[in-house]
Amino acid sequence: MAHGHRAHLDLDLRDEVRFSESIGCLMTIEEILFEAEEKMQKTEEVVVHEFSGVRTGKASAALVENMQVEVYGSQMRIRELAGITPPESRVILIQPWDASTIGPIEKAIQKSNLGINPVVDGKNIRIVLPELSTERREEFTKVVKKMAEDGRVAVRHVRREAMERLKKDAKQGDITEDELSHSEKEVQKLTDRFVEKIDQHVAHKEKEIMTV
Description:
Blueprint: H1 2-52, E1 68-71, E2 74-77, E3 82-88, E4 91-96, H2 102-111, E5 118-121, E6 124-128, H3 134-171, H4 177-210
Antiparallel strand pairs: 1-2, 3-4, 4-6, 5-6
Helix pairs in contact: 1-3, 1-4, 3-4
């Protein structure tokens, strides 16, 4: 009787181990998908951030706020050194909190490839954005398209990484063929979603650039 009870316990334990392993592999798949989504989202954020530094016809703090300034023996962003506001549609006003940073901020703006000229006005720096020519707008549109394409490539790279990890797990027998097939479809859905998001961002940015 005791022997039969012991055998019953062994069966229960084996079932429990199989169940734990099943849950474990499910978590592994979820982790791969979650990590892929996180990386794709980060890529989208980088693209949007890069877009903010490309000129449109309208003044925006985003145009200069992330420019790196050599100050206090290190590199700091303008937004960490000053208040930035657009008091008029084509004017950006930078108000440094420390007067000693005015020169370095001015220099950083001059070195940028945005074609804008800062003017020191007392304790402030004023930027008047020149009207963009059609040619210049088209150049900026090309820059934005290139940034978007780099973003799409990065998203597809994340997809490839995730697919390779899933295939490796399937080859090792950690996940079934059905789980592999389902997971690959989920990775592709993520890829399509984030590529579409980048497409939407670039369309919006192009419209901003080309609006006179």
